[in-house]
Amino acid sequence: MKVSKVADSLMTYTEQFMEYDPFVSGVEPSNPWISDDTTFWDMEASSRDPSQQRVKKWGFSLEEALKDPAGRDQFLKFLESEFSSENLRFWLAVQDMKRRPLQEVSTRAQEIWQEFLAEGAPSSINLDSHSYELTSQNLKDPGRYSFEDAQVDCVVFFMDAHDLMFS
């Protein structure tokens, strides 16, 4: 029974992404994996005019929208219209902090705290009291994952906003 559920899930995923797979579908211009023509990648990398196919892919999941720079920009514009863009800016700042050299993490963590979580912060985000307490405790000895609980709160909000944006 469990194997059939996994197989069904894999088939659904494969069918959903089939038209985006350059090995399976014939993409125009030519497949950059087969030919050495990178025109397709250059067209898709352009964040000015994303293709209809690319925009459709953002609707599959929050992850798809956030990993595409143009999708992230459009999601940020949507959140600005809902007066909640600070949540995405916080999440992106924390993601950036996680990729920084370890010696910069402590300073960047304090900057993020001051901008988004401190009392009177210019871009204050809403967190439940439990997440706020855990995050403030984590910042006594800041590390790459000090804001994990706060980020989880933001992701829950994003999922609702994503569904609203693509409904």
From TrEMBL:
Residue ranges constituting the RGS domain according to the UniProt record = 61-151
Q: Which gene encodes it?
A: RGS7_1
What name does the UniProt record give this protein? Regulator of G-protein signaling 7
List, alphabetically, the Gene3D superfamilies matched.
Regulator of G-protein Signalling 4, domain 2, Transducin (heterotrimeric G protein), gamma chain
Return the InterPro entries for the record: G-protein_gamma-like_dom, GGL_sf, RGS, RGS6/7/9/11, RGS_sf, RGS_subdomain_2
Q: Is the Secreted keyword given for this protein?
A: no
Asked whether the keyword Ribosomal protein is assigned, the reply is: no
- One Pfam entry for this protein is G-gamma
Task: Tell me the superkingdom of the source.
Answer: Eukaryota
Keywords recorded for this protein, A-Z: Signal transduction inhibitor
Q: Which organism is it from?
A: Goodea atripinnis
